[in-house]
Amino acid sequence: MRLSKMHIKTLREVPNEAEISSHILLLRTGMIRKLVSGVYGFMPLGWRSVRKIEDIVRQEMDATGAQEIHMSAVQPAELWQESGRWFAYGPELWRLKDRNGRDFCLGPTHEEIFTDLVRNDVSSYRQLPMNLYQIQTKYRDEARPRFGLMRSREFIMKDAYSFDKDYAGLDESYKAMYNAYDRIFTRCGLTFRPVEADTGAIGGSNSHEFTALAEVGESEIAYCESCSMAATVERAQCTDAPAQDDTAMLPLEEVHTPGTKTIEEVADFLGLDKKQTIKALLFVTYDEETGKENGYVAAFIRGDRELNMIKLINALGIPEHTIEFADEEKMSAATGCVGGFTGPCGLHDCKIVVDSELPGLKNLCAGACKEDHHLINVNYGRDYEGDIVTDLKVLQEGDPCPVCGAPVKHARGIEVGQVFKLGTKYSDSMGAMYVDEHQKEQPIVMGCYGIGVTRTLAAVVEQHHDDNGIIWPMSVAPYHVIITLVKPDDQVQAQAAEKIYEALQKARVEVLLDDRKERPGVKFKDADLLGIPVRITVGKLAGEGKVEYKLRRDAEKQEITIDEAIARAVEIVEREK
Ligand code: ATP
Ligand code: MG
Questions:
Q1: Measuring from atom 8 of ligand 1, which residue has the nearest CA?
Q2: pTM of the model
Q3: Ligand 1 centroid to residue 506 C-alpha, Å
Q4: Do 178 and 61 fall into the same domain?
Q5: How far is CA 466 from the centre of its chain?
Q6: Number of structural domains found in the chain
Q7: Bond from prior residue into 129 cis (ω within 30 degrees of 0)
Q8: How do residues 406-439 score in pLDDT, each as one tens digit?
Q9: 488 plus 568 within the same structural domain
Q10: Nearest protein CA to atom 18 of ligand 1, as residue
Q11: Domain around 553
């Protein structure tokens, strides 16, 4: 492709809203174009890289025996009502009506559609196992679309669904997808970690996220260097502090603690360690269907801990969008809580959720549900009880690993893919059955597997760039080689460039010829910005049959003959593409 003919507009100035490198660079290179918040179009270079990622995904999925199909983005509400997700999915689900008032949504994911397909088409064990996938546009009306392709409202996803006779079959299918994901992200040039994950709105029992490591990532992961434990912080189990079985319970006492609304303040005031206090977090919940308030929740954890919201939501068994921090005044009238002085004793008409380590700890300090007062020597069982007692805490950096006890580390990353064992969640609710070898009806056992194709593109740029621009890995680069023709009007230079251009194309190298009538400085800057892996500069030395050869990722340049430059380019592209 000749750059002079290509539809490309690079930007010097980038809109303020672009905060992270991948977003800035994808805009600056003109690879993506914003239409409205969270909705982007792809220009020629950007679309080529998207297709490269899609091709890698397709090759690796096909290699596992999965079959590609393509379903519509428009989905009828009835299927979502059958699975129970029409309400559970919340405002992220992009809903619409047709001219007759019938409800539809734009698919954020396709479990219902694939389950419906398979319940109609599969009846016998002979048809199983099966894995169907698609590469398709998804819609999620995200609360905060940001970071360009990273969290957009329209994006391309590969979604695959496996259908097995039993759980042993699901284990096999899951492993095959897990391994395929490993190869896909490796081939895309990403540094990543598979980590255990929460199953969220998709449901099911077991899940891994593939996290591309990056400081700007929105996923926080906890991992252990002494064993193989790796999990999202949302998911990671915490080890409870050891129970103080030998400590005697002291008499409960109310103490005057004027103005000590925070854990720090009360601990300071009473000369306690934060570990000897109980922290309260207050929430209101809403009905899934009507959106009306339907109750209060108070969560209690040790004063030095952080509440893990996902664990709380899972404990309550409610969707994420149906809970939020309570208005303390309103809650006070209904439950007796007192802002800054709330403890588990004396609360009423409120669900009490207690972190699993609190029952083992003795003589703690908690709010007295009375202005300017706390209780000391609060003990579980004697002074308060929980409606639910479960692990509610965040596994912090340095906490003991739940598997081996060594201090855990934290890292940030971008979730580029996720695999789930769904089990029979959808086949039960939607009646996807098959007849087994003994003529008995059984539910089909399912798994589902997503890759954010466009988010992967952003993750690659996030991991592969410098101050001057993108540094594409060969496998997903929009072109392999750029020929920078310094003076297009110079006959010798132009002929040499054409010769290289033709030779590389013959060798099936994807090559860009920068034949624009621009200043050399502009061309060099653009070549760096675009990040094409190999640059061949045709300039003054062309008369001697020589060019400058440079890899975008290396600083050094070499002056070599035209033939050698061609040979080297072909060789590196073959090796790395
Ligand atoms: P997140 O936690 O980041 O919101 P998710 O867990 O809801 O993502 P999944 O339902 O697992 O996402 O979707 C599969 C894949 O689709 C994700 O791993 C991610 O790569 C991609 N993806 C999800 N939401 C978005 C989005 N808003 N923009 C771009 N890609 C997305
Ligand atoms: Mg996910």
A1: 415
A2: 0.91
A3: 40
A4: yes
A5: 24
A6: 3
A7: yes
A8: 999 999 999 999 999 999 999 999 999 999 999 9
A9: yes
A10: 417
A11: 479-576
